[in-house]
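seq as requested:
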Amino acid sequence: MDSAIETIGYPRAALIGNPSDGFYGETVAFTFSDFSARVKLFPSEQIVLQTHTADAIEFSSLDHLVAETQAHGYSPSIALVQATVKKFRDHCSQMQSMNLYQGFYLQAESDIPYQVGIAGSSAIIVAVLRALMRHYKVPIEKPVLASLALSVETEELCIPGGLQDRVAQVYQGLVHMDFNKSYFHQQGYGQYKNLNPDTLPSLYIAWRLSSAEGSEVFHNNIRERFDNNDKEVLLAIEHWKKLTQEFLEGLNSQDVNAMQRAMDANFDQRAQIYQISSDNLEMIRIARECGASAKFAGSGGAIIGIYDHAEIYNTLQQRFADKNIQILKPKLVSHSDNESY
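struct tokens:
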């Protein structure tokens, strides 16, 4: 096989504001390159989909893939990739970009830790969409691409989720996202802006695989409470928006203490309205005892924080090792590495 297209999707970590991305709030997140989802796509007469954990599945065409999916549902072993291809085809149909006759052989693999809240599933989706865009020469604007990536899980696979992961992974680097309802009424998506990652202080990410749980578990009944105008949830979302602004002010003025306070307060507010496992609470407690800030990096399972100096990071390593918790210093992906079709 020749003329391979290769694309990448990176994990993301939320610094502040989450989980208000699904509730018209604000958040700041970044992508990092310590792990990745990778896709290779080759021209082919058939449509062939394969992952590193599943055998290849063949379809005669995109129309055949859609028909099989509608008739029999998704193949469990490759549902994420299959749903992404179907959503891409549906999008092109709506946009009347129907020159989709050439087949392809698509291979997807990922080493992103599973279900620890750093957006491994959406990284695969973004990488697959980028490969399809390049193969069929179909440009999709960044904010539309992020919404399309979200629809793969929420509409096709009925998996709860928000835009934050997909926006961060499409824009890459350090991204501020404002999901104010007025923006969605005006343009159909939020207001997204890349920030300078060089302004960030020293960060760590830590996770314990035995505590992995997906967003659909973690987000329990918050959506229902939000839809019912639950006062406690609405006040929490407003608080997270305020903390996002405080974090951004700290970032602009290089006030590390202000950023740490905002991150800690983000988690503390979250703990008041969410049921959080004892394992996750223990990670937060250990990090703070070591002198670092600590909050969830996403939906639970991984935490993120700021540490002031190397001694604190060394102490974190020692304390976490005793609890079989992994830790790293994330390598941020520059938004200049952002892939177009």
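The radius of gyration is 20 Å.
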